[in-house]
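Batch manifest, entry 17 of 40.
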Amino acid sequence: MVLGSDVKSAIRKYAIKNAMDYGKASEGAVMSKVISLFPGSKSDMGLLRSEVKSEVDKVNSMARNAIDEEYSAYSDEFKAAEATKAQKSALHSFSIPGAEHGKFVTRFPPEPGGYLHIGHAKPIFIEDELRKAYSGKLMLYFDDTNPDNERQEFVDSIKEDLAWLGLKFDSEYYASDAIPSLYQYASSVIGKGMAYVCTCNTLEVKKSRDSGIACSHKSQDNATNLGLWEKMLNGGFGDNEAIVRLNSDLGSVNTTMRDPTLFRIKHSPHYRQGKKYHVWPTYDFCTPIMDSTNGITDVVRSKEYEMRDELYFAVLDALGLRNPRITSFSRLEISNNATSKRKIRELIASKQIAGYDDPRLVTIRALKRRGILPAAIREFALSFGMGKSESVVDISVLLNINRKMADKGAKRLFFIESPAEMHVKGLEGVKGISMRLHPSVDLGNRTYYAKSDVLIGSEDAKGLRPGDVVRLKEAYNVRIDSISGSITASYGGSENIEAKKISWVNKDGSVKCCLWDIGPLLSGDSFNEGSIIEKCGVAEGYASNLDEGDIVQFEKYGFYKLDSKAEMRFLSL
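Output type: C-alpha cells
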C-alpha cells in the first residue's frame, strides 16, 4: 500500500496544528485525527505509523517561527472546523421525553468497593446537566450491600473525587441503612409466592438457570419459604448456604429473569453496619426499591444495564411500588486502559503500577494527579451526548481538551535533556536577560544574568560546527569558536537574527529534574512495559519557584505537571 498525497498532506497539516496548539506534536493525536478523516488508512497501520512519526519528528525539530509561518496557511480552515465542532457540541440535547420542570429527581449510585474512574464521569455529568435543565434534584446514593468489598476508605474517596469534579448533591443516603425495610419487602414477596428460599449450591443454581430446569425449592409452599427466610435472618445458615430467588420464568429469553438471586448470606462485618446484619440484598432487589421509595423520578444509566430493566420493573410490580423512568446511553471507555477493580488490583499486586492514583490509570484520582482539569473531564464526558453508539476513545482526545484549557496558565520554560556544556566569551557588557513566561498571556517574566557557562541539548550540540552562528532562544547570538569536549563560543549580539534557535539554561542555578512521558497502560490485554518513558536533564533556575501541581510547557517537549517537588518529577499532560 502507498499512502495517497491527501493522507500525507493531512499528516503534515495536523502535525503542524498539534505543535502550534501544544508546543510539541503528538504522534497519537495526529494518528487519531488522520484515521478519523481517512478510515481506509488503517489497512496498513505500520506504514501509517511510520509516516506520522517521520512528520512529527520533522515538525518537532522546527523553530517556533517556522511553525507559526506554516500554520498561517491553514488557519482559516482550522477556525472553520473549530466553529463547526462547537456548533455540533451545542446541539447535544440533554433532555428526557416526559420529564417535568421542577419535578425531576435522579441519583448517582456508586458502590463503595473501589475508586471512581472516567467511566463514572459520563453518567454523573449527564445527570448534573439534566438536574440543571429541569431545575431538579441530584442525590448521592451509596449502593453498599456487599460487606466483602466495601470500605469507608472508598466512601471517603468517592466524596473527595466528586467534590474535586465540582459536583454538589441535594441529599445523600445509603442502602445499608434501609436493611430493616428491605427485609419487610422481602417477607412480602415471599408471602405472596413471588419469591422462594433456595438451598442449592452455587453450581446447582447456575446449572438450573442455564438449562431452564427448576430445582425442587421453586415449588415450596409459602409457609415453608417464610420459615426458611426466618431461619436465614436468625443465623441458621452459613455464607451462601441459602438464597432468596425471584419466582419468575426459568425459560425466559432474557437470562436475567431466570429466577435471579434477591438476597444472600454474608457474615463478614460491614464497614458501616458492623455485624448488625448478615442477610444482604442484591443490587437487583435493593436498587429499584431504593429508587422508588426515595422519590427518584428518573434513572439515568449506561446501556450495559438494559437487560436488567425488565427485572427492575418486575421487583417494583411485585411490591406494588411506583416505577421510575429509565434512560440509557452508551458507556464511556478509554482504549488501552483498565477500569475493572480486578484488573487494577492485579497490576498493583504485581507492582506494575504503584496504586489507584498511578498516572497511567484513568481513575479520577489518577487523572487529578496527572494534571487533568475537572472542566476538561466534564467537557470530554459530555461531548458524547446521550446516544447509544459505543464510546471507546483514545485518551489523546481528553488530553487535547485539557491542554487547551491549561495553556493560558502554563508558564513556558526551557528543559535540557542530556546537557552539553558551552562556554561563551565576551558577555561582560551584557545586561540581565528577561524572558516572558507566556508568549501571549501576561504571566510575568523570568530574569537571568548572562553567565559564561550554559547548557544546551546534546542533539543541538551535535549539529554545531566552528564558525556557525546560532541564537540562544530569547537571549543572544553566539558564534561557535571551537568544539573539543565542550563548546567554546563568542557573544554575537542580542538582535534577533535569522539563525538556528536552541534552548539553553545557565549551568549555575539549573535544576535537575525528570520528565515522565505517560503512554498507554496496556498493549492489548497485557501491561505495556513502555507506558512510562523517563527523560532526565536540567531545567532553568525558575523551575525551583514552581509548586506541586503547577503546569508548565517545556519548549519542544510539551505540557507537564510538577508531580513531586522533592524529586522534581514532572508528568506529561
